[in-house]
Amino acid sequence: MDGNDLNQKTGAAADPEMERILNEMLEADETITARAVARRHPVIKHASSITRNPLRSDFLARYQERQKQFREWRHRAPKRSRDQLAAQLAQKDSRIAELERQVEVLRISHLAMIRTVGELGGISKLLKLYEGYREVREELDRLGVLPHGEVKPFELPRRAGTSEP
Q1: How many Å apart are CA 126 and CA 122, to the nearest integer?
Q2: Which of 22-31, 56-65, 100-109 is predicted least confidently?
Q3: H or E stretch including 137?
Q4: Collapsing DSSP states into helix, strand and coil, what is residue 53?
C-alpha cells in the first residue's frame, strides 16, 4: 500500500482541507464534532455531509479518538506546563521512531543471518544455534522467518547397464 492508498483510506487525500481543520482543532483543543468541522469547512456546509460519508466519518472518528487520548493524557499530568508536555511528547515520539527503526534493522539482519546459517549448515545447524533459546526459536517460527523444508532422500543416478548406482 503506497501513501496515496493510505491517504484515500483515511480520507486525507479526499479532503485535505478537512484534515487541516481537524489538525487545527486538535492543536487548539476545540471539541471535534461533525458540526464544528462543517462550520469551518469552505465547501461542506452540513454535518451530515461528514457523517453520511464513510471515509469522512471514519476520519472524523479517528481525530475524535486522538483528541480523547490527548485530553486523558493531559489530565494525568496537570502540574506540568503545556510546553513541557509538548516537549516530552515530541521526545517520546522521536524515541518510538528510533526504536521502530532499530527493530527493522535487527529484523533484517537476523533474517540474513538465519538464511546464511541455513545455507551453510542446514536446518540442523540453525536449530543447534537456537537450542538453548526455545522461546526465541518459537517466536521466530511464529514470525515465519525460520526456513521450513522437507528432508528428501539423496539418490544417485543409475549407471547405464548396471543395477548399482
Answers
A1: 7
A2: 100-109
A3: helix 134-143
A4: coil
For the stretch 63-96, pLDDT in tens is 999 999 888 887 776 666 777 878 888 899 999 9
- Angle at which helix 54-76 crosses helix 16-28, to 10 degrees, equals 20
Write down the pTM of the prediction.
0.45
Instruction: Dig out the grid coordinates for 120 from the structure.
Output: 551453510
The residue behind cell 543409475 is 158
Among 4, 47, 44, 40, which residue's Cα sits nearest to residue 22?
Answer: 40
Q: Which amino acid is at 53?
A: N
- Cβ proximity of 139 and 133 under 8 Å: no
State how far the alpha carbon of 139 is from the alpha carbons of 121, 133, 143, 144, in Å. 21, 10, 6, 9
* CA gap 41, 122 in Å, rounded: 62
User: By mean pLDDT, which of 22-31, 64-73, 146-155 is the weakest?
Assistant: 146-155
- CB-CB contact of 27 with 71 (8 Å): no
Nearest-5° angle of CA 6, CA 12, CA 16? 150
Say if residue 7's pLDDT is above 50.
no
Provide the pLDDT for residue 33. 94
- Rounded CA gap, 100 and 146, in Å? 22
